[in-house]
Amino acid sequence: MGVSWLKLAVLSDIHSNHTALESVFEYISGKYYDMYIFLGDYVTDCPYPQKTLALLREFSAGRRCVFIRGNREDYLINHRKDGGIWEYGSKTGALKYTYENLSGEELDRFAEMPISMRIETEGCPPFVVCHGSLESSNYLFHTETPEAEEMAQRLDCGLMLCGHSHIPYIFRHSGKMIVNPGALGMPVNRQNRAQFAEVTFDGEWRAEIISVEYDIEKEVAEFAESGLLEKSGLWGRGLIGTLREGVNYTVMTVREVERLSKETGLPVTDEGLWARAAENVGVPEI
Fold first, then answer.
1. How many CA within 13 A on the CB side of residue 61?
2. What span, in angstroms and rounded, lies between the C-alpha atoms of 269 and 261?
3. Of 30, 36, 81, 149, which sees the most CB atoms within 10 A?
């Protein structure tokens, strides 16, 4: 007979924060999990993306791991395919830096990952995993919206694991559970520890959000050391603020840049707009 007990470690939205990832791996190394679920957005934003990918390759050797592609991986894959213009600066500098620090083989591995998957394990009910939704890596929903209830109702199983929003939650509706483990590498729920989820089945699905402390200033120091801070402008400064405070300064700044662009007619790549937007939303000085 198959077992009727399962324990999962669920990790999402690392965003190249290898320092946070190392601390989470140290935390879970002394615990038992049947499976490790990685929900995408492994790279972009933080320095040295190749270090994060090396950690993931090493960790997955000999362990039962599932890897789902996130929207950031899609950005990189599509850039290789379409050859759009990315330039150093606040708008696309961090993406350009990441792309230039990845190999073709690493991009190939991203392209091979699915955007969603149904997982069946002997003795336990099936569950589904994705980054944004089962159909799109870039779909964003929150638990306080009707979309969350609709998504739960549409599920043909009792559990969905997803990421993308960077907001951890355990949402129950219509006898279903949707779990977002939060952002391991770039949390925005006004706390600055690396987050992941433990999900268990013992006759019913249960979940817990785990927060792990890591050396934030070590990761911050690498922005200047790697050259990423200079290449990513106000975006990089916003990321450092997010790492330290758990506030989504980059999204706030982008929205303000878009508002100022409509108001002034200047392009969203204009660094003056980014400087004004950063001041308006209160992006911290470094």
1. 5
2. 9
3. 36
Contacts of 15 (CB under 8 A, 6+ apart): 41, 42, 43, 44, 45, 46, 72, 183, 185, 186
Which runs of consecutive H residues, i.e. helices, occur in 16-70? 18-29, 49-60
Are 161 and 235 found together in one domain?
no
Q: What is the pTM of this model?
A: 0.96
Do 208 and 95 have their domain in common?
Answer: yes
Give 16's contacts (C-beta < 8 A, 6+ positions apart): 42, 43, 44, 45, 46, 47, 48, 49, 51, 52, 98, 185
Give the model's pLDDT for residue 5: 87
**What is the number of alpha carbons within 13 Å of residue 267 lying toward its C-beta?**
5
Which of 244, 242, 246, 226 has its CA nearest to residue 234? 242
Q: How many domains does the chain have?
A: 2
pLDDT in tens, 18-42: 999 999 999 999 899 999 999 999 9
Q: How far are the Cα atoms of 35, 108, 175 from residue 233, in angstroms, in the given order?
A: 39, 29, 46
pLDDT 10s digits, 41-83 = 999 999 999 999 999 999 999 999 999 999 999 999 999 999 8
The per-residue pLDDT for range 91-148, each reduced to its tens digit, is 999 999 999 999 999 999 999 999 999 999 988 999 999 999 999 999 998 888 888 8
Kind and range of the H or E run holding 249: helix 249-264
CATH number of the CATH domain containing 190: 3.60.21.10
Q: DSSP H helical segments within 30-163, as ranges?
A: 49-60, 71-82, 93-100, 104-112, 146-154
